[in-house]
């Protein structure tokens, strides 16, 4: 079967691998679509902090069942999506239902080989039917669920002023679900086309470009109060530090992105606001269901989000183009 492996940062190679044999308790999937995530781009560029090379990337997975365990609700041919965060079910986080931050988590495409391949074994409890959505949509559930989880962590309320800093796919997902909860959302980014996309397709109420006067613009948009909830999805340590000044008194700051660096902030500024600082990692099945419900009801513009496609065989030659800002990539799907 065709498999694409990231041997070292910047080096992708297509090879013929042996077909996996289904293990007891696993579902053997025929991979049909894989979404390309910021995590995959970070693996390719060598900036993903939880990874050892070589690695088969890919964790935004839609496929069809090839083989399933006896007694499983899944049958050959069923269209499915995958919860790619393989949790242990026993640790302190799992016992609280926080499987997204399992102590022993194994994320497909990061801690173990993922879906840039034609067939993949996945433990049955992490495979669900993709009912009422297309294969393309099923491959986009995971990244949207990360945004839905961040918004749920922040408990965004109707009418709250919300700022999303960094409007890549995860930022866009956070913006979408904050808006669906009734938040008045502003997008902040360095790229005008991304800010415009958020206003045109995703319901952002305002957009600001990062510039010398951006703080004044954000102040004016909020009558000097700044934002009840700020989401950082930049993946940039300096941006994460700067985001503390956008929080309203009594507000919340949610760090959705991850960096290798330490980040610092002024305690007097944080303290006088009585601000709440939240980390948001991955998502749970509850968040996946939130996304699926929104998709089925037509609230997610998945056709607009899916800007690029490529065949699995073309990944080694074409993958680097997804890093080019001039290409206008939002979400790329790989067809297997």
Structural class: alpha/beta
Strand/helix succession: EEEHEEEHEEEHHEHEHEHEHEHEHHEHE
The figure for the number of domains is: 2
What level of helicity do the residues show? 25-40%
Low-confidence stretches: none
Q: Which percent band covers the strand fraction?
A: 25-35%
Mean pLDDT: 96
- Give the CATH class of the largest domain: Alpha Beta
> How many β-strands, per DSSP?
17
Q: Would you give the CATH topology of the largest domain?
A: Quinone Oxidoreductase, Chain A, domain 1
Largest sheet: 7 strands, mixed
Number of helices: 12
Please state the CA-atom Rg, rounded to the nearest Å: 20 Å
End-to-end CA span: 11 Å
Q: How would you name the CATH homologous superfamily of the largest domain? A: Medium-chain alcohol dehydrogenases, catalytic domain
What is the second-level CATH architecture of the largest domain? Alpha-Beta Complex
Tell the overall outline: globular
Overview of this protein structure:
The protein is an alpha/beta fold and 336 residues long. It folds into two domains: 2-140 and 300-335, Alpha-Beta Complex (Quinone Oxidoreductase, Chain A, domain 1); 146-279, Rossmann fold. It is 27% helix and 27% strand. It contains twelve helices and 17 strands. The protein has helices at 38-45, 92-95, 135-138, 141-154, 169-180, 192-201, 214-221, 237-242, 267-272, 285-296, 302-305, 315-318, and strands spanning 2-8, 11-16, 26-35, 60-67, 79-82, 85-86, 106-107, 119-123, 127-129, 161-165, 184-189, 206-209, 227-232, 247-255, 276-279, 306-311, 331-335. The strands form four sheets. Strands 3, 4, 5, 8, 9, 16 and 17 form a seven-stranded mixed β-sheet that branches. The protein has a six-stranded parallel β-sheet with strand order 12-11-10-13-14-15, with helices on both faces. β11, α6 and β12 form a beta-alpha-beta unit. α4 packs across α5 (169-180). The protein is globular. It starts with a strand and ends with a strand. The relative contact order is 0.15. The mean pLDDT is 96.
């Amino acid at each position: 079967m065709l498999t694409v492996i990231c041997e070292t940062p910047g080096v992708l190679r297509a090879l013929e691998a042996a077909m996996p044999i289904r293990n007891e308790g696993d579902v053997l999937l025929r991979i049909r679509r894989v979404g390309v995530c910021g995590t995959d781009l970070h693996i390719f560029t060598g900036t993903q902090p939880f990874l050892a090379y070589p690695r088969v990337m890919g964790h935004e997975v839609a496929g069809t069942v090839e083989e399933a365990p006896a007694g499983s609700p899944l049958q050959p041919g069923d269209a499915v999506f995958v919860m790619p965060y393989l949790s242990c079910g026993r640790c302190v986080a799992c016992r609280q239902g926080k499987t997204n931050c399992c102590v022993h988590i194994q994320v497909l495409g990061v801690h173990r080989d993922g879906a840039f391949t034609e067939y993949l074994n996945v433990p049955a409890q992490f495979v669900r039917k993709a009912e009422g959505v297309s294969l393309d949509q099923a491959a986009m559930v995971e990244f949207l669920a990360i945004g839905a989880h961040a918004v749920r962590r922040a408990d965004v309320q109707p009418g709250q002023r919300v700022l999303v800093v960094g409007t890549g796919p995860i930022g866009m997902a956070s913006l979408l679900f904050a808006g669906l909860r009734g938040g008045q959302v502003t997008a902040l980014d360095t790229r005008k086309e991304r800010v415009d996309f958020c206003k045109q397709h995703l319901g952002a109420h305002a957009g600001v470009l990062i510039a010398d006067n951006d703080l004044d613009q954000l102040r004016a948009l909020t009558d000097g109060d700044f934002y009840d909830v700020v989401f950082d999805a930049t993946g940039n340590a300096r941006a994460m530090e700067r985001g503390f000044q956008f929080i309203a008194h009594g507000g919340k700051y949610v760090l959705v992105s991850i960096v290798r660096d330490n980040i610092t902030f002024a305690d007097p500024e944080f303290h006088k606001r009585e601000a709440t600082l939240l980390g948001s990692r991955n998502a749970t099945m509850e968040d996946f269901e939130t996304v699926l419900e929104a998709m089925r009801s037509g609230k997610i513009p998945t056709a607009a989000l899916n800007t690029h496609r490529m065949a699995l065989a073309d990944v080694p030659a074409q993958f680097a183009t997804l890093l080019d800002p001039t290409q206008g990539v939002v979400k790329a799907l790989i067809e297997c």
